[in-house]
Each structure stands twice: as structure tokens, then as C-alpha cells.
Backbone:
């Protein structure tokens, strides 16, 4: 990973729809070496996929919540069942195992409070869930869609 590779990643995070020729022009390479570098970054897993950032409001998402979840069992099969259930819940857009007073921190979206209530009912039905605490996001103050490149 050199300076040019980092530049490629920075540019693609902002404009993933660039053609290889356009990308090459932006970073100051000819198209063939740029294409080889791009392919290598994909093959080595630096670039996982290409996606569109969808406007939440236009998609009918009016509310975001951060949900702290504590489990009553930390057995491997119980954790696997819980995490599989989370992955099947469309409302959960991010989930993290965390240290501290709870086990998971989830980012959950909903069109309204009724939708969130339906989600919490599904969550409480999971046998391994001991307790949940919810924080309503009032306003997003930072919306970074790019990652810093530290390598």
C-alpha cells in the first residue's frame, strides 16, 4: 500500500462510479497501471464492494435508535442464534459487540415509533435477550461516508 493506492481508495470512497480512465486521470496514472492497481486492491480485500448511499428520508426512514442489548446467556450457540436473528432483522443496520455494561450496541432505523415498537417486540422474543435500553437519535451531527486510510 503506497501513496497512490491510498489516493485511489480516497477518490473511490467519494466517487465509486468513476470509470477506470476517469480514476486514472484523477490520480495521475495512465489507465492500464490504474486498472492493475484497482484490481489488486480488490483482490487483496482493501475494496470490499461498491454501493450507493441511499437517502434515509426518501427511503421512508424517519427515525434512528441506538439500542443497548444485554444477553442472559453467553454460550456460543446462544450468541450465534442471537446474531443470526439480528442479521435477519432489516431494521438493524449496524451491530457491534462491545465491552462494558451491555453486550451489543445496535443501530436501528424505523419509519416511525410504531415500527420501532414492533422491532422491540421481535427483539424481546429472542430467548437470549435479557435487557434492552434505547436511545433515540435526535439529530445526526457527523455523516462521514469515507474512512481514513491508515495503512
Residues:
Amino acid at each position: 500500500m503506497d501513496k497512490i493506492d491510498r489516493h485511489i481508495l480516497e477518490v473511490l470512497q467519494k466517487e465509486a462510479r468513476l470509470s477506470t480512465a476517469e480514476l486514472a486521470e484523477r490520480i495521475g496514472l495512465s489507465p492500464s497501471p490504474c486498472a492493475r492497481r484497482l484490481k489488486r486492491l480488490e483482490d487483496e480485500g482493501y475494496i470490499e464492494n461498491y454501493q450507493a448511499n441511499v437517502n434515509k428520508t426518501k427511503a421512508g426512514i424517519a427515525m434512528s435508535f441506538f439500542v443497548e442489548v444485554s444477553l442472559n446467556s453467553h454460550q456460543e450457540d446462544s450468541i450465534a442464534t442471537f446474531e443470526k436473528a439480528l442479521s435477519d432483522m432489516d431494521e438493524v443496520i449496524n451491530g457491534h459487540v462491545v465491552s462494558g455494561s451491555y453486550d451489543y450496541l445496535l443501530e436501528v432505523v424505523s419509519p416511525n415509533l410504531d415500527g420501532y415498537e414492533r422491532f422491540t417486540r421481535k427483539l424481546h422474543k429472542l430467548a437470549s435477550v435479557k435487557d434492552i435500553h434505547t436511545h433515540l437519535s435526535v439529530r445526526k451531527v457527523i455523516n462521514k461516508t469515507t474512512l481514513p486510510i491508515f495503512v
User: Anything to note?
Assistant: The chain has a mean pLDDT of 96. Residues 63-136 form a domain with the Alpha-Beta Plaits fold (CATH 3.30.70.920). The chain has five helices and four strands. The CA atoms of residues 6 and 149 lie 6 Å apart.
